[in-house]
Write a structure and sequence with these properties.
The protein contains three helices and no strands. It is an all-alpha fold and 90 residues long.
Length: 90
C-alpha cells in the first residue's frame, strides 16, 4: 500500500467517522431511543477499529518490515507494545 493509497483510504474513513459522530450528537440532542444511540456508538467504534487496522497494516508493511531488517529488537518491542495496548482495549 503506497502513501497515496493509504492517505486517501484513511481520509475517507475519517470522514465517515466524522459523519457518524455528527449523527450520534444529533441523536443524543433529539433524545432518541437509547438502543438506537448505542447502535450508532458501536458503529463508530467499529469504524475506528477499521481505521486502526488500516494504520497497523501500513505500519507493518512499511516501517516494521524495514525495522526487522535493520533493528529487529526495536521492531519486536514496538509490536509487543501495540499488542498489549490492543489487549487492554478489548
Amino acid at each position: 500500500m503506497d502513501n497515496g493509497g493509504f492517505k486517501g483510504q484513511a481520509e475517507r474513513r475519517i470522514n465517515i467517522i466524522k459523519g457518524q459522530l455528527d449523527g450520534l450528537f444529533k441523536m443524543i440532542d433529539k433524545d432518541e431511543y437509547c438502543t438506537d444511540i448505542l447502535d450508532q456508538s458501536l458503529a463508530i467504534q467499529n469504524s475506528l477499529k477499521s481505521l486502526d487496522g488500516l494504520i497497523l497494516e501500513r505500519h507493518l508493511r512499511i516501517h516494521a518490515a524495514d525495522q526487522f531488517k535493520n533493528n529487529k529488537e526495536k521492531a519486536v518491542n514496538e509490536l509487543l507494545k501495540i499488542f498489549k495496548k490492543k489487549q487492554r482495549n478489548d
